[in-house]
User: Fold these one by one.
Assistant:
Number 1:
Amino acid sequence: MAFRLASPLAADAGRRAAREAVGAAVPAIELVDSRTGWSFDAPLAVADNSLDAGIVLGSDVDPAGIALGDESVTLRVDGSPVDSGVGADVLGNPLAALTWLADAVDGLAAGALVTTGSLTEPFPVDAGETVTASFASLGDVTLRVE
């Protein structure tokens, strides 16, 4: 999942301030790739731009009333489930990832779009396949690989 900030988030913010700064929760599929193969450690992953190859976003959702740590997702390839997870799979709560980042970069500006980290394991897909991430409260986001 990703968050779009409605207001700035200070470096030393706690989880409550992070929740208040979030204007929208967004269903997302993170695209990962590695120029070094799939055997790597943390320093190599960082040197490879954290394996970032892109992101596919769904529609913004008002996070009010959503228990983000309990928000579940099922990842499907061509309709078949391949993995699932919950928000708590990211540092215990996706807001913890948001506060960590705000602290690491000395605060985040209003309007920032921040991904929280993966709720599922990365899963390889091939040309012609369709990937859908179905979130319990945030809805679906779909990617067709060409």
Number 2:
Amino acid sequence: MVVRSPRESLAVPPAIQRRLEAAGLRRTLATRAVLGLFLAHPDGTLSHAQALASLTARGLDINRVTLYRLLERLAACGVLRRHTDGQARTWRFGLAALETEAAGPRFECDACHRQFRLPQAGASTQAVADGLIRTLEGQGHRGLRLDLAIRGTCADCVGAGDSTGATGNT
């Protein structure tokens, strides 16, 4: 990894720092730069290629395999969440819910890939999630979390005339 001077420094929030420490991840320049991408737009998601292009534009030259491994490690320790973009069939990464937020359901726009948390649905959804996890436990499995996402087109994209959600990137 060749480093050019990054344009901004990043303070890592304590909840994220605890997750990094628990997973044994160091707060390297690359880690801070990647976190900066997601902290700057907490409701957005990025593909590996978009993250690489953004980091390069910010002055950080990082190997694409190193970036992929870092994104995977950040997802494994709960800092990022990873999901498949149904349109392009690529992995997309977004900032995971922090301890101060409910990890309840979210809505993702297929057009712009912004994420909207749905906290008002949290209690009833949590009851359903608990029931599903108990069902799994009854079968001998151990469910750790349930990731509920509703996909469609957000009000901004519908208003812009894209009701199909078939195009657009963040």
